[in-house]
Amino acid sequence: MAATLIDVARQACVSVATASRVLNGSGNRRSKPDIVERVRSVAETLDYRPNATAQAVIRSTSRLLGLVVPDIGDPYFSSIPKGAQEASARNGTLLLLAGIDGSTGDELRAFKALVSQRVEGIILAGSRCDGPGFHETTLLLAEAIEMYTRSRGRVVTIGEGILANTPGAEFVLRIQEAERAAELASALAVRGCSRFTIVAGPDLVRQSDRRVSGFIRGLRESGAPMANVIRGEMNRAGGLKAGQEVLRTIRDQQYGMRHGVLSVNDRVAMGCISALSAAGCESPRDYAIGGFDDIPQLQDFWQLLSTVRLPLQEIGARAAEMAIGEDVDCVLEGEVMLRASTTHA
Fold first, then answer.
1. Are 345 and 90 in contact (CB under 8 A)?
2. What's the number of CA atoms in the CB half-sphere (13 Å) around residue 211?
3. How many helices (H) and strands (E) does the chain have?
4. pLDDT digits over 133-183, tens only?
5. Cβ contacts of 164 within 8 Å, gap of 6 or more
6. What stretch(es) of the chain map to CATH 1.10.260.40?
7. Which of 21, 48, 100, 343 is 20 to 30 A from 74 via CA?
8. Closest among 342, 345, 258 to 305, alpha carbons compared
9. Which DSSP category does 297 fall into?
10. Half-sphere exposure of 154 (CA within 13 A, CB side)
11. CATH topology of domain 177-309
């Protein structure tokens, strides 16, 4: 039978309360050094294992960290938890992962579930959406965050903040998405592209909008013509569908014009490339294309895709460190990677 706290207290000749304070660390300053040493020695001899639930109640925390991510099957979101898990382990904290499907209210339910587990901090990795139904749930989420942070919990949001009216109540890990998108667009403009298509996500998805605005700014600053914007799902299926429209544009354009395609993420770009390749169009011969994120799957993709490399695992690690309390607000830059998909043969 496993040793209990009562067994430790009895053998160390102290009260149960004293043994509890010594073993959870709250009584080390008030207890005499010889008592602290005796209790710890007895606990080690008896191979005592503290009750994690009981300690969580005492401390109001559980050495747990929560992470909420949409679409865990997306390589972007699956890379972030890996970095967060590694950083959590280094700090003796266990990561609880809550995967959501992105539906209205799903993020709020996941947040409340993690709060009920007395986690020390919560990371929100999903992009905000301003579409119908999402505004109201974002307000409810903001209220839940304010209540949680008042009880000394820490909330980290990736990409953008939520509490616009309560600065300082959350920690924001910002990523220079618009800046790098502008750089990538400029790179395509100076590589001979004279007509452009931007393959974007659905209306009012803020991550997509940040990247699209960067693309447009980069094209404008390079003197390139206005781009046609195609909206669809931010996955391979969305890219396949967009590829059909890009194909019609390529076939209709004048001889000698080179088409540039800018995708809001690599999955969309990969789908677009597949659709165009099936129709006999190849990059960089017939068009140039760039993605965003530099997901691990690109290493095995036959087309060496130009993209914006984001330090996905570092994003997760830094967010975890911020949630644990070891870091403050920070900005990660990213890097434009030019590969075969944008270079003339």
1. no
2. 29
3. 12, 12
4. 788 888 899 999 998 988 888 999 999 888 765 556 788 999 999 999 999
5. none
6. 5-50
7. 343
8. 342
9. G
10. 20
11. Rossmann fold (3.40.50)
